[in-house]
Amino acid sequence: MRLTVTLLAAVLLGLGGTAALAQELEQTAPVKGLPDPYAGWPRVELDTSAGRMVVAVDTKDAPITAKNFLHYVDSGRMKGAKFYRVVKVDTEFGFVQFGMQTNPKKLFPPIKHEPTTETGLHHTDGTLSMPRLKPDTAQGEFTITVGDQRPSFDAHPDAPGDNLGYAAFGKVVEGRDVLIHILDQPVDPEKNDRGAFRGEMPDDPVTILSAKRIAQ
């Protein structure tokens, strides 16, 4: 389930740095006066202790994964969830993780894995995704990528483990500055979650104060 900093650093070197990522983001982000590339995707407002983000989820191409996320939102279980893991490889490059932290009282049953080779989605900047152990085990943990991380997170022959990657299902469409603020949170070098994520957990994690669907 864990992706090492070494792997992500190698991806960064292969992409030529954050300037290229910023250029790609500018090319793919919604532009005023042009068609919205995420039109028709349900929107969810995440009001956090660091500010407001809006995410759009792709219920057409990744229906199982997107509807699972919306289930956590609609049930109220996302309220109080924390951004408990921060993996920062470089300036504006890495990922953050949030969710139920495997709390059995908050988890819904595992869902079928939807690899990017089936959905056609990719782990570019601001992509919502689901971490997992084996395929079909994902439940209530979510990641947001910062920077283009298709080589690490997408399904492809050279991907780690079973080569099936994570299941991408949405995009941050508002509040990228909040996402960067979360990525920049200082981590406690000793803090861990039952032995996992040592050196990747903020001492004071950002909390989701409310999560709700909003009109597009």
Describe the model.
- InterPro entries: Cyclophilin-like_dom_sf, Cyclophilin-type_PPIase_dom, E_coli_cyclophilin_A-like.
- Keywords: Isomerase, Rotamase, Signal.
- Its EC number is 5.2.1.8.
- Residues 1-22 form the signal peptide.
- It holds the Pfam family Pro_isomerase.
- With 216 residues, this protein is an alpha+beta fold.
- The protein has a single domain (5-22, 43-214), classed as Beta Barrel (Cyclophilin).
- The protein has 6 helices and 10 strands, in the order ααββαββαββαβαβββ.
- The strands form 2 sheets. It has an 8-stranded antiparallel beta barrel. The chain has a two-stranded antiparallel sheet with strand order 8-9.
- A hairpin with a 2-residue loop joins strand 1 (43-48) and strand 2 (51-57).
- The longest helix is centred in the first third of the chain and has 12 residues, at 63-74.
- The model is unreliable at 1-28 (pLDDT under 50).
